[in-house]
Specification:
Length: 268
């Protein structure tokens, strides 16, 4: 049943792209890429907080970083943040459908949950924390009624925990964050368009500014967008750097525009 529901959501969010005007399809795919990069930068900041504030975490660090991401996007409450939240849930479902359903390629030992689980978890926190804005996601994402009943409490616990963790590190009254620098490296030919999109839209700066306006980071940090020869994003604690691969942003664009070949370029 879940497979059908997943398909329904992906169809609702992704399928129309191929059926609409090429220009509109490109714009939608670019927004999808931007949204998923935004949530990924928040996720990496989750790792930054855990590291720089030496936060106690029981359970998987990756789950904690996902929870922080969802809470911060919910709290931002802007149209862009809400779109990023929805596109991220859709991105997990789509990624699971494209890459995660082949038994051999599903890594059950990975430090992350399966993308489909990350989708349900994020949808649950969104529904619980923003029932007015995200109530429809419960049905769209196919959350079981039993699970929906727990989402309000799950969100409350997550928010209470996060607020306690962040309280000693809030910006204001003379408490300022160390600087967060943003660097967009030159891209190779295949990735110049996506690099230019992220740069001209100030995607990384937007997240950096939102974070430093609210929280105090003790150590300066760089967010570097660059060619990595893989589709990923990392936080490197040893060099105080968040790495966002252009290939990762491109993957999300291609997942909507060209799902048959998405993810092939970096593997070649
Ligand atoms: Zn992570």
């Amino acid at each position: 049943m879940h497979r059908f529901v997943i398909a329904a959501l992906v169809v609702a969010l992704a399928q129309p792209v191929s059926a609409i005007e090429p220009q509109a399809a490109v714009a939608e795919a670019e927004q999808f890429a931007i949204s998923n990069v935004i949530s990924t930068v928040y996720h990496e900041f989750g790792h930054v907080f855990i590291d720089q504030w030496a936060l106690p975490i029981l359970g998987r660090e990756e789950d904690a970083a996902d929870t922080i991401t969802t809470l911060l996007l919910l709290q931002a409450g802007t149209a862009e943040a809400d779109t990023a939240s929805r596109d991220t849930v859709a991105g997990y479902f789509l990624s699971f459908r494209l890459f995660g359903t082949v038994e051999e390629s599903t890594d059950f030992s990975d430090e992350h949950g399966l993308d489909v689980q990350r989708a349900y978890q994020m949808a649950c926190l969104l529904v619980g924390g923003g029932p007015d804005r995200f109530g429809d996601l419960a049905k769209e994402a196919g959350l079981d009624a039993d699970r929906v009943e727990t989402c309000t409490a799950e969100h409350e616990l997550a928010l209470r925990s996060w607020n306690a963790m962040a309280a000693p590190h809030l910006a204001g009254e003379g408490a300022e964050s160390a600087a967060v620098a943003v660097v967009y490296e030159e891209a190779t030919a295949d990735y110049q368009e996506i690099a230019s999109l992220l740069r001209t839209r100030g995607v990384l700066e937007g997240v950096a500014e939102a974070i430093t306006a609210q929280f105090v980071l003790p150590r300066a940090l760089t967010i570097r967008a660059h060619i990595c020869e893989e589709e990923n994003a990392y936080y490197y604690a040893d060099i105080d750097e968040i790495s966002i691969c252009y290939e990762y942003a491109q993957l999300y664009r291609d997942m909507l525009l060209d799902p048959d070949t998405a993810g092939m370029a970096a593997a070649e």
